[in-house]
Amino acid sequence: MVCLSISMAKCNPPVKKKNPKNIILMIGDGMGLAQLCAGYALNKKQLNIFELAQIIGLCNTSSADNFITDSAAGATAMSTGYKTNNGMISFLPDSSSPRTIFEFAKSNQMKTGLVVSCALTHATPACFYSHRYNRELHTDIAADFYNGTVDIAAGGGFPVFDTAKLRSLGYQVTIGKTTTPTSSKYVSFYDTSFHPAQISEGRGSFLTNNTMLSLDKLTNDKGFMLMVEGSQIDWGGHNNDGDYVVKEMLDFDSCVKHVLDWAKKDGETLVIITADHETGGLGLMGSDASSTKPKLLFHNTHHSGIMVPVFAFGPGEEKFQGVYENIDIFYKMKNLLNFK
Predict the structure, then answer these.
(1) Residues whose CB falls within 8 Å of the CB of residue 215, separated by 6 or more in sequence, listed in order
(2) Active site includes 5?
(3) Per residue in 60-97, pLDDT tens?
(4) pLDDT at 12
(5) Of all residues in the chain, what percent carry a pLDDT higher than 70?
(6) CB atoms closer than 10 angstroms to residue 201
(7) Annotated catalytic residue, options 7, 62, 63, 71
(8) What's the pLDDT tens digit per position in 159-176?
(9) What is the Cα–Cα distance from 280 to 118, expressed in whole angstroms?
(10) What is the per-residue pLDDT across 268-305, written as a single tens digit (0 to 9) for each?
């Protein structure tokens, strides 16, 4: 029996899993495990992330100068593989600017895209194309966008962008929900305000619709990288508004379902779902009068230092098991795509 087992093992070596051609990084800003559990409990115990993602890990979110990170340092870690100080956009304390994963992608002839429910110059999306010492320098961050690191973008930020400049660089520019981009290179603004509306104020399926459109436009022989952010989960946490958190959480989760369904059919795309940090120190403490729904209680109006979950689906998903630092997400993506 032993000899037979050895013989069979020699004849049937383990199949080497292939690397992904495309990567979609989905970030729920401020989305800790409590936010996920709140969405699950208040949505009849149904959450697409829980049902569809195959692998789960945990990552530590601390920044270079603080146990409690902000979104700038948190996104910098994932986009560059370096810890930096809070408030810095892919910019390090020694004044160096490490290459972002999008910049690596472009140098490898891949396409890149951003879809967010905040301004495109806000901390998280900015970290994928900009290098600035201060996250509040929105006009300067927008100027970095003109370098061409991003092929497709959808979100807010209209007041700080020069639309004539964008058009001169070959971007189709659309404003509002009534016009759908037709080009393979575009910037689609939610409206002329700085940030898109809350989901409860009529934003509708902006995040999902633009994510799915971007997948259609980004698909090509060389592959692509897409970052999708459910931005306003964080804002609900800062406001200690449980209803705001849950509605934004479920909007993000709906987008996740569409993306994972697409990735399953595609077969060559790795989807990573995580957060830059948790916001509000949310706890599900006790239940309502019916004893069937949790009470959402916040401990502060800022971020917390609790680890956040990392879910993965697709080629290379097994690399995201375990407990690790947020910077490791960058290195796992970089190695899977064979970036040098």
Answers:
(1) 24, 226, 259, 262
(2) no
(3) 999 999 999 999 999 999 999 999 999 999 999 999 99
(4) 54
(5) 94
(6) 8
(7) 71
(8) 999 999 999 999 999 999
(9) 19
(10) 999 999 999 999 999 998 776 666 788 899 999 999 99
Note the pLDDT of residue 289.
61
Residue 163 token pair: 């639309």
Mean pLDDT of 27-35: 97
Q: What is the mean pLDDT of the chain?
A: 94
Task: Please compute, for residue 33, the number of CA atoms within 13 A of its CA located in the half-sphere on the CB side.
Answer: 12
Of 246, 267, 333, 196, residue with least CA distance to 38: 246
The encoded tokens of residue 252 equal: 């993000």
3-state secondary structure the chain: CHHHHHHHHHHCCCCCCCCCCEEEEEEECCCCHHHHHHHHHCCCCCCHHHHHCCEEEEEECCCCCCCCCCHHHHHHHHHHCCCCCCCCECCCCCCCCCCCHHHHHHHCCCEEEEEEEEECCCHHHHCCCCCECCCCCHHHHHHHHCCCCCCEEEEECHHHCCHHHHHHCCCEEEECCCCCCCCCCEEEECCCCCCCCCHHHCCCCHHHHHHHHHHHHHCCCCCEEEEEEECCHHHHHHCCCHHHHHHHHHHHHHHHHHHHHHHHHHCCEEEEEECCCEECCCEEEEECCCCCCEEEECCCCCEECCCEEEEEECCCHHHHCEEEECHHHHHHHHHHCCCC
Residue 53 is predicted with a pLDDT of 85
Alpha-carbon distance 65 to 84, whole Å?
7
Burial of 255: CB neighbours in 10 Å, binned 0-12, 13-18, 19+: buried
Contacts of 195 (CB under 8 A, 6+ apart): 118, 119, 122, 156, 157
**Alpha carbon 206 to chain centroid, angstroms:** 15
pLDDT of residue 136: 97
Which residue, among 216, 155, 149, 137, has the nearest Cα to 184 in the 3D structure? 216
